[in-house]
Amino acid sequence: MELSVGTILEGKVKSITNFGAFISLPENKTGMVHISEVANAYVSDIRQHLTEGQDVKVMVIGTEGGKINLSIKRLEPKPQRDNAGKGSYAPRREGAPRRESSAPRQNQNAGRPVQPAAPKTADQLFEEKLKAFMTESDSKLSSIRAYSENRSRPRRR
Fold this sequence. Notes:
This protein has 157 residues and is of the alpha+beta class. Among the domains are: 8-75, CATH 2.40.50.140; 120-152. Helix content is 20%, strand content 23%. It has one helix at residues 122-152, and strands spanning 8-16, 20-25, 29-34, 55-64, 67-71. Strands 1-2-3-5-4 form a 5-stranded mixed β-barrel.
């Protein structure tokens, strides 16, 4: 049986690691599901989603150098997202403060009528993303420059 990208197979979880799970496939083949391909939501502990010996349905997403890359999440329906993108996973930026309280924030404008914001155009969204990228890039470059300047100075004795 030739495995090609897009093939759907039944397998059994053989072993679990911190980065993924190895799946026993037909004809004594083994493939791996990376932790990012287990579920449509963020997975911090793969053991909360899979157990050894569990039967799973997987899709072949790649075959490189004899290795078989598999996905479970690509067989699941994609979660519904509203237009604002709320509920989606957005990692905390480096250096950004953590929000300590899980209590909802108080709305300072409670009781006042809220006017909906005008929808942003594609150009405005692109400009915002570009500005954020440039800011983050400048920050990283300046820290790299500072580090390399400190390393290149001769030490005093």
